[in-house]
Amino acid sequence: MSRDQEQKSYEQLFILFSAKVEKVIIRTTLVFFVLLICVQAMLQIPYIRKHFTRVEPLEGKPYVWPQNGNGERS
After folding, report:
1. Could you give the CA distance from residue 10 to residue 17 in angstroms, rounded to a whole number?
2. Which end of the chain is more exposed for a tag (fewer CB within 10 A), N or C?
3. pLDDT at residue 74 greater than cutoff 90
4. Is the pLDDT of residue 10 over 60?
5. Integer CA distances (angstroms), 66 to 5, 59, 72, in order
6. How far is CA 65 from CA 37, 57, 59, 62, 70, in A?
7. How far apart are CA 7 and CA 1, in angstroms?
8. How many C-beta neighbours within 10 Å does residue 48 have?
9. How far apart are alpha carbons 1 and 50 in whole angstroms?
10. Distance from C-alpha of 54 to C-alpha of 48, rounded to nearest angstrom
């Protein structure tokens, strides 16, 4: 094999390898993005958020809007 043919063969192998690596990186990124969306959606449910996070019990008493019209206004 000549030097030029070896170089072309190496480039073709590198292109094949990099294409496979790119596919893996893209799929992994998509999986993590979907997981992020799912976890963020789950954190919107108070029961799940209470068990998922360690900070939630430390937050204190939740604010409740006054039911009658005599509550404070800012």
Report:
1. 10
2. C
3. no
4. yes
5. 80, 20, 8
6. 29, 20, 17, 10, 11
7. 10
8. 13
9. 67
10. 12
3-state DSSP assignment of residue 28: helix
- Write the single-letter amino acid at 58: L
pLDDT tens by residue, 11-66: 999 999 999 999 999 999 999 999 999 999 999 998 888 888 888 777 777 667 77
Token duo for residue 23: 């596919």
Using CA atoms, how far apart are residues 72 and 64, in angstroms rounded to an integer?
12
What type of residue is 23?
Answer: K
60 in Cβ contact with 66 (< 8 Å): no
What pLDDT band is residue 8 in, cutting at 50, 70 and 90?
confident
